[in-house]
């Protein structure tokens, strides 16, 4: 019977799809932890990393837009984060600022996951911890590393 074979071939994928959709619904509407209740966490969380940076002057701190000429470094740091790539972004950003602004004293760089808090209804940045515990990097105008974690 060819009809039974088709049903059997489609049964497992259909069942997996139903469970995954049910898991997504439970996470979004009942605040179920994505990694509980079936193990389909990888289907319910969207993990997107971004690179953010700030420049510090004697009087103020300001967030700056991503610099187009550093696009490749941003992508590399966000996709395969490690301290050397974070440093490459920091040094590149430092060089751009040296050309454009003589008032800044240091720069701060962070690689963060973009997370949606369903209970608060807001998007927030969660610093990504690198292999050596680095979460945040502050470089002086001369490129010297001043700080590499948020708790210092």
What does this structure look like?
This protein has helices spanning 2-30, 41-44, 71-79, 83-100, and strands at residues 48-56, 61-63, 106-117, 122-127, 137-140, 145-147. With 152 residues, it is α+β, with helices and mostly antiparallel strands. Strands 1, 2, 3, 4, 5 and 6 form a six-stranded antiparallel β-sheet that branches. The longest helix has 29 residues, at 2-30. The model has no long low-confidence stretch (mean pLDDT 78).
Shape: elongated
Mean pLDDT: 78
Q: Kindly, what is the distance between the CA atoms of the first and last residues, rounded to a whole number of angstroms?
A: 69 Å
**Number of helices, where a helix is a run of at least 4 consecutive DSSP H or I residues:** 4
Features:
152 residues; alpha+beta; six-stranded antiparallel β-sheet; 4 helices; 39% helix
Question: What is the strand and helix layout of this fold?
Answer:
Blueprint: H1 2-30, H2 41-44, E1 48-56, E2 61-63, H3 71-79, H4 83-100, E3 106-117, E4 122-127, E5 137-140, E6 145-147
Helix pairs in contact: 3-4
Brief account:
The chain is α+β, with helices and mostly antiparallel strands and 152 residues long. The chain has four helices and six strands. A hairpin with a 4-residue loop joins strand 5 (137-140) and strand 6.
